[in-house]
Amino acid sequence: MSCRLDVSVVAPGTAHRNHCPHCLASLHVDRRVPGDRDADCRGRMEALSMSTRPDGEWVIIHQCASCGELSANRIAGDDNPYALVRLALRPLVDPRHAGRALFAL
Ligand SMILES: [Zn+2]
Ligand SMILES: [Zn+2]
Q1: Which InterPro entries match (predicted)?
Q2: How close is the Cα of 68 to the center of ligand 2, in Å?
Q3: Which of 71, 77, 96, 102 sits CB 3.0–4.6 Å from 13 for a disulfide?
Q4: Ligand 1 center to 56 CA (angstroms)
Q5: Are 77 and 100 in contact (CB under 8 A)?
Q6: Which positions ≥6 away from 63 have C-beta within 8 Å?
Q7: 47, 25 Cβ separation under 8 angstroms
């Protein structure tokens, strides 16, 4: 992937956009809470899969390519729908990981 990762902070439908609307990749800048910008890793986080929260909200599961950290992020209003569908149809690499990411929220 050759995305420049121009991630703006403001996006429709979310208070803190933290992933690319085109390829859904993110940067490891948040530690615990999305938007806290507390991590100093700055690694590239690839979209691993999609999942749903108990309230039915869709989230993207990201995994950091540098440290392996997992995080779950709300999808944003301007995310590429095709990228989201591709991601949703992708089987979970390891369901335990995704479950753990959701659990950490
Ligand atoms: Zn991108
Ligand atoms: Zn990281």
Answers
A1: RNHCP
A2: 6
A3: 77
A4: 25
A5: no
A6: 45, 46, 48, 69, 70, 97
A7: yes
CA of 41 to the centre of ligand 2 (A): 5
The 10s digit of each residue's pLDDT in 59-101 is: 999 999 999 998 888 888 889 998 998 888 876 555 665 555 5
What DSSP string runs through the chain? Answer: --------S-BTTBSS--B-TTT--EES--SSSTT--------EEEEEEEEE-TTS-EEEEEEETTT--EEEEE--TTS-HHHHHHHHHSPPS-HHHHHHHHHT-
> What residues does each domain of the chain span?
26-103
24 Cα: distance to centroid of ligand 2 (angstroms): 16
CB within 8 A of 65, min separation 6: which ones?
43, 44, 45, 46
Q: Which two tokens stand for residue 58?
A: 């869709």
Q: Are the beta carbons of 90 and 82 closer than 8 angstroms?
A: no
